[in-house]
Design brief:
- Keywords: Disulfide bond, Glycoprotein, Hydrolase, Protease, Signal, Thiol protease, Zymogen.
- Pfam families: Inhibitor_I29, Peptidase_C1.
- The chain has about 350 residues and is of the alpha+beta class.
- About 30% of the residues lie in helices and about 20% in strands.
- It is built from nine helices and twelve strands.
- The strands form two sheets. Strands 1, 2, 5, 6, 7, 8, 9, 10, 11 and 12 form a ten-stranded mixed β-sheet that branches.
- The N terminus is likely disordered.
Length: about 350
Amino acid sequence: MSHKLSLFFLISLLIATLVPAHTLIRQVVVDSDDDVHHHFSHFKNKFGKSYGSKEEHGYRFSVFKANLRRAELHQEADPTAVHGVTQFSDMTPDEFAEKHLGLRPLQFPKDATKAPILPTQDLPASFDWRDHGAVTPVKNQGSCGSCWSFSTTGALEGANFLATGKLETLSEQQLIDCDHECDPEEPSSCDAGCNGGLMNTAFEYTLKTGGLMREEDYPYTGTDKGACKLDKSKIVASVHNFSVVSLDEDQIAANLVQNGPLAVAINAVYMQTYIGGVSCPFVCSKNLDHGVLLVGYGESGFSPIRMKQKPYWIIKNSWGETWGEQGYYKICKGPNVCGVDSMVSTVVAAHTTPH
């Protein structure tokens, strides 16, 4: 690599670290306004976008154009994945963060129960709970910062499957409407519907209240303006206990295999334009802003920039099946890439049936 290219690459990485965590990226080189108009037209057709006025259309076009300018740099920072236009490409960073993320910037309480250390010598080379019936179909949180509730229900759905043999689709809306549990170390930081929350406080609420209802009995509305409609006679899944998993990839894998899908927090900057492949960014903030579900791991995600097979985590997201790989994200294992190992929780379900 020439000195000129090396210098350009180093500058690119430096800029990538300074770009705000919620920037939108597009893998397109834009040479002219005609190119931008072409991509914007394709974007509107693909995602069924329409705007109420010429002013709004013009504004969204300018946002889209600004997002395209970040494309080349961001693709260079994460060359092992495929990035492209997503349904979020006409949104400003702040709009995206408000409507499609929602993890409160909290840490685990110092006295949080820690998961016991598990043996790791006989772990399978790859594992996926989707192959074993413990994962419900991909859901869509819509324009509500409720990712934390989907991460919570996903973990309890899997744990309940292990405890009862039945896969129930659980209600995020119950958590949005009824869960106002607070961090014991920061009483002013509480689960707050579309304004964010935390998976461990949601598990605490579920433990205290007795459990969660089915989604069909308490359907998702994507808003937090309604009153709590909990009917305890229709609870189908209850928390027996929950704990924090060690910041160790082998322990995370062992807990995943033994206890079911895990509630995980991540920095979502590269997820905003993710299309497919294994995301292995050179630089990624560990500031956690999105709650997701860890359902498995693989060993054969080729990373050409590292010239070897790179193991990866399999993440279930809550942005619908049209995003990513049918709603899933692959991120390489490594030194806590994008903070994915920082906040991992496992939950054990009680054997619960409706009253």
